[in-house]
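Write out the 3D structure for:
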Amino acid sequence: MAEYETICKELALATKKLEEAQDQLDQLDVLKAKEAQLRKDVIKYTTRVEDLTTQAEGVVKEGEFMQKPVTVAPLAAKVEEARIELDKDPAKVRQNRMRAINKKLQGIEKLKAKDGPLDEEAAKKVKTEPALRKKLAALERGEDPDSDAEEEPQGGVELPSDPAERQKKIKALQKKLREVEALKQKGGMLDAQAKIKRDSEQHLIQELSALESGASVFVLDEAALFAAHKFELEKQVKKLQKKITQIAELKAKPSLDDDAQAKVDGEKDTKKELKDLEADVAKMNEVERKRVADRLGWEAEKKGKKNGKK
């Protein structure tokens, strides 16, 4: 019986470790799902910082040019002062923003309660309700939405509102992402079905990110999907190119261990896999060139019509 007790304790420990490992993998999937948005935010706010810095310096230079020097503290000191002010009472700032959004929502409810059709301006305000409620929900969770501006309504896929259903969908997407990752780690030539699964990764990531953020509607960002997917394929291409270089170095050695010999023996398959991946990247580049060409042609045609009218 003592042995049985010991086995049960070890089984409980192993089960616990398994659950902890799975939880960490799920968290990793969540962070990975946010990668595309975080990269976009870095680009967005880097540009914003540069623009605002230029504007601030421009104000000072304009004063000096007009011989009316502007007496201000150094820019870095003023920015730090403003950051301290922002951090003083975030709860109060959040409450003010929530109050402003609630006021807009109350106005929308009044418009919806009116008899008869709404004019264009009123109808536009009513259509902003989902975006406003999304921002309000984010503020209530203690998060900071990008802007308080009333977003234009967008088309998309409605996400489940029931918490249990949302969690179920989140777990299903995480499982699919783990399958895609396993497929990528396995390597080798992929058939058409496997490629479809591989190419679905960025779509899954965006949808998971929408669910995690509390969005009620999922709108696919085609540009971000294309860029992220191309980045992933090019990363795999570089990995295979490096592997082929290593194989060439191994072939020059007088003797090899079993692992090194297996790599050399697999050179033909590795080259096939690389060629297949390079073909996939080439197809993506061709699609992008056509899209840009169509766009430029459309703009040129539009410009020509405009000049023709003149």
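Residues 163-309 form one domain.
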